[in-house]
Design a protein that fits this description.
The complex is a heterodimer of chains A (about 280) and B (about 300). Chain A has about 280 residues and is an all-alpha fold. Among the domains of chain A are: about 70 residues, no CATH class; about 80 residues; about 35 residues, no CATH class. Chain A is about 55% helix and about 0% strand. Chain A contains 9 helices and 1 strand; from the N terminus they run αααβαααααα. Chain B has about 300 residues and is α+β, with helices and mostly antiparallel strands. Chain B has a domain of about 210 residues: Rossmann fold (3-Layer(aba) Sandwich), CATH 3.40.50.10480. Chain B has 6 helices and 13 strands. The chains are: A mainly alpha (about 280), B alpha+beta (about 300). The interface between A and B is large, with 76 and 86 residues. Strand 1 of chain A pairs parallel with strand 8 of chain B, so a sheet runs across the interface. Chain A: One of its GO terms (cellular component) is preribosome, large subunit precursor. Chain A: It is found in: Nucleus, Nucleolus. Chain A: Keywords: Coiled coil, Nucleus, Ribosome biogenesis. Chain A: This is Putative rRNA-processing protein EBP2. Chain A: Pfam families: Ebp2.
């Protein structure tokens, strides 16, 4: 492989040379060029207003391959040129330089073309804003997940602490010689079930007919998931379906329409697609 | 509106100017648009000899047949930038000869010519020629962007005179000097041309970088005063690589030849050549491997029979 590469290399190098090195046979007739220039050039004392040429002193060579610096160099050259030209025109006097705002005339680019450019710019801006928003919401979602899990952990921890403290208190009571009374039994049952269902008292946040203990309202958080693990069962879909159809318990008028829901047509299809590209 | 003068009228114009001053009470002249109340401005003179310089440049713009749309758009852009040009229909490739084009230029009363020559639907060559006696320059055109493009957001009056900004290295060498003169004559719009608009709202920059001439067209945008001036690019953009300078128009003896120039055909051929010989190389490599293996036989493994139970 190497050998063959060398072979072909030596052949092609001979051809590549003109790319790198200037050929020495090239004609360069300086006198002829200057003669030609003398022939065609306008008289030396032509007024500047006929030529409108400006010379710009370039300090350093432009790096052609660096787009930004190259364009910047051209821009500064042009701006400098405008300044010089303005000074010269001002000196002459009587000639307006800038176009007044109320001077309308045919332009190089048509109005429709300029409109297209404008819409393109607006579209680009919109896209940037939308992308930013998407990014933000994604990050917010990440953070909210973290916050949620932390909350759940905290809740579990506090519950554990509570139970522990109660146990501690009971031990102390036993040690100090109190017989377990009625309250004690109640507390025991409460601790075992983990909720206050046995009391028959009014439970906060649960409808009176609800036998699920408010699970339907809380969604599926503890519904089908692993109990006490803090992990919700199913995904968003499950949650939504549970809240819509419920899993047990009286619905308490939650599924009845109200004035608002009857007027809401958000969920309906329009029935046909509107072709946005169609010309009106 | 430029005032028309008869040839050799230099002296009499001055006289009439004096007369107007003397008889200032006279009723103003009537024109189609109403009364002309201003005294006519006497045309200024450029030198003491009394000769007035008038730029009567007219440019013929044309292209070859089989030009691609991008290059054609570049041509139409340039036509819209030059109010003093005349557009000619496409020229058959077999008619691209110095004589026939020169005849065309003469027929259309033009004094210079911009000719876009497209070859192989890929390469664009641009001729800048002074007619009928030359000189002419042939360029290869690179990196073409037309005004159509959405990124170039500027706009300016059609027919306003551009300021021509040249980088200082145009004065270093006779060839650049000559090109500068030709460019000023072709791209500069005559002062009193009838289609010219009276303000300066755009500027062309010609700068030499890497032995190429780079062209840019900027709109001058101002928010009151020269200090708050900014520029917005209008387009088109292109880059000219000089190939040759001829003494005549579209021909004649060569005055300059770019030693660094490599034709795009040659570049393409080289690239192609690099890709060739894949199969041959493979065969060569195989043969070489065989020879190598024969020359350096593998020694027998001394532990090969170590675990054989016999």
């Amino acid at each position: 492989m190497n050998m063959s590469k060398n072979d072909s290399g030596s052949e092609s190098e001979g051809e590549e040379l003109p790319l790198l090195e200037p050929s020495k046979k090239a004609i360069y007739n300086r006198e002829g060029l200057l003669e030609c220039l003398e022939e065609i050039r306008w008289p030396e004392d032509v007024k500047w207003i006929h030529k409108l040429t400006i010379d710009h002193v370039q300090d350093q060579d432009i790096d052609v391959n660096d787009d930004i610096t190259r364009e910047m160099a051209f821009y500064t050259q042009a701006l400098e040129g405008v300044r010089q030209a303005y000074a010269k025109v001002e000196k002459m006097g009587g000639i307006p330089f800038f176009r007044p705002a109320d001077y309308y005339a045919e332009m190089v680019k048509s109005d429709s073309h300029m409109l297209r450019i404008k819409s393109r710019i607006l579209q680009d801006k919109k896209q940037i804003v939308e992308a930013d928003e998407r990014k933000k919401s994604r990050e917010a979602k990440k953070i909210s997940k973290q916050v949620q899990s932390q909350k759940l952990k905290e809740r579990a921890k506090s519950k554990k602490d509570d139970i522990e403290s109660v146990k501690k208190w009971r031990k102390q009571r036993q040690q100090s010689g109190y017989a377990p009374g009625k309250d004690e039994e109640l507390l025991n049952s409460m601790l075992e079930s983990g909720t206050a269902t046995a009391t028959g008292k009014k439970r906060p946040g649960v409808a009176p007919g609800d036998r699920t203990g408010g699970i339907s309202k809380r969604g599926a958080k503890f519904g089908k998931g692993i109990p006490n693990s803090g992990r919700p069962g199913g995904g968003k879909n499950r949650e939504y379906k549970d809240s819509k159809f419920g899993n047990g318990g009286r619905k308490g008028g939650r599924k009845q329409n109200t004035a608002e829901t009857t007027n809401d047509i958000k969920g309906f299809n329009r029935g046909f697609k509107v072709n946005k590209r169609r010309k009106i | 509106m430029g005032k028309k003068r008869k040839a050799g009228d230099g002296a009499s114009v001055e006289d009439s100017g004096k007369k107007v001053e003397e008889m200032a009470v006279e009723r103003p002249k009537r024109t189609l648009l109403g009364w002309k109340d201003k005294t006519e401005v006497v045309e200024e003179k450029d030198d003491e000899s009394g000769q007035v310089f008038r730029n009567k440049e007219k440019v013929l713009v044309s292209c070859s047949r089989r030009i691609t749309f991008r290059y054609r758009h570049l041509m139409t852009d340039i036509v819209s930038l030059l109010p003093h040009c005349k557009k000619e229909s496409k020229i058959e490739s077999n008619e691209i000869k110095a004589q026939s084009i020169n005849e065309l230029v003469e027929l259309r009363n033009c004094s210079s010519c911009l000719f876009f020559e497209c070859r192989k639907l890929k390469d664009l060559y641009l001729w800048l020629a002074k007619s009928p006696n030359g000189p002419s320059v042939k360029f290869l055109v690179n990196t073409v962007h037309t005004m159509e493009e959405m990124k170039l957001t500027g706009n300016h009056l059609k027919g306003s005179r551009p300021i021509l900004s040249f980088s200082s290295n145009f004065d270093n060498d006779p060839r650049w000097k000559l090109m500068k003169e030709i460019i000023t004559q072709i791209f500069g719009i005559p002062k009193d041309h009838r289609k010219v608009k009276p303000f300066f709202d755009h500027i062309y920059t010609f700068s030499i970088a890497d032995e190429h001439i780079w062209f840019r067209n900027y709109q001058v945008v101002t928010q009151g005063g020269i200090e708050k001036t900014t520029l917005v690019e209008v387009g088109p953009r292109f880059c000219l690589n000089p190939i040759r300078i001829f003494a005549g128009s579209f021909g004649g003896p060569t005055l300059y030849e770019n030693p660094l120039y490599v034709s795009p055909n040659q570049i393409r051929a080289l690239e192609k050549e690099k890709k060739t010989g894949k199969y041959l190389n493979k065969i060569k490599a195989k043969a070489k491997r065989k020879v190598h293996e024969l020359a350096n036989p593998i020694e027998g493994d001394e532990f090969a029979d170590m675990w054989r139970e016999d």
